[in-house]
Amino acid sequence: MAGEESHDVASCKRVDEGITRVFQLLGKRWTGPIVSVLTAGPAYFVSLRRAIPGISERMLSDRLTELTQAGLVVREVYEGPPLRVVYRLTEAGAALEPALTELGGWAMKHLPEKDRPGNC
Predict the structure, then answer these.
(1) What are phi and psi of 66, to 5 degrees?
(2) Of 50, 78, 48, 40, which is closest to residue 64 (Cα–Cα)?
(3) I need a surface site. Which of 16, 31, 59, 115 has the fewest CB within 10 A?
(4) Is 89 exposed, middle or buried (0-12, 13-18, 19+ CB in 10 A)?
């Protein structure tokens, strides 16, 4: 029937709720790179900023706050002098490492390579 042929095939499909929730958080600019850097271990704020070229202090602070509220990052304060603040992944945050590794591998294989920033 002609009417059925023009029916949109995707109209019956819906995005998975889990995918929607994860990309609402991790799909924000800078969030993935922050989590990725923290998979290597705890880091000071300044170390995170150096590890992610182009991120502002304000944006890093905002994203770390969001990740903390989401239960993926813990902020630990060590009394000084000097006062030291360390960020580390929670168990839930660390559980993202395999997925981030797979996504990074997929990007290297399927996304066009752009100019890479220099190493540290």
Answers:
(1) -60, -45
(2) 48
(3) 115
(4) buried
Tokens of 19: 């995918």
pTM (two decimals): 0.78
In the chain, DSSP finds a helix count (H) and a strand count (E) of: 7, 3
Asked if residue 63 lies in contact with residue 30, where contact means CB atoms within 8 angstroms, the answer is yes
Query: 72, 94, 76, 98: which is closest to 85 by C-alpha?
Result: 76
Residue with tokens 């994203």: 63
Kindly report, residue by residue over 61-110, the tens digit of the pLDDT: 999 999 999 999 999 998 888 888 999 999 999 999 999 999 999 988 88
Instruction: Of 55, 65, 11, give the one whose Cα is nearest residue 29.
Output: 55
Q: To which H or E segment does residue 35 belong?
A: helix 31-38
Residue pair 37/51 in contact by the 8 Å Cβ criterion: yes
d(CA 53, CA 33): 10
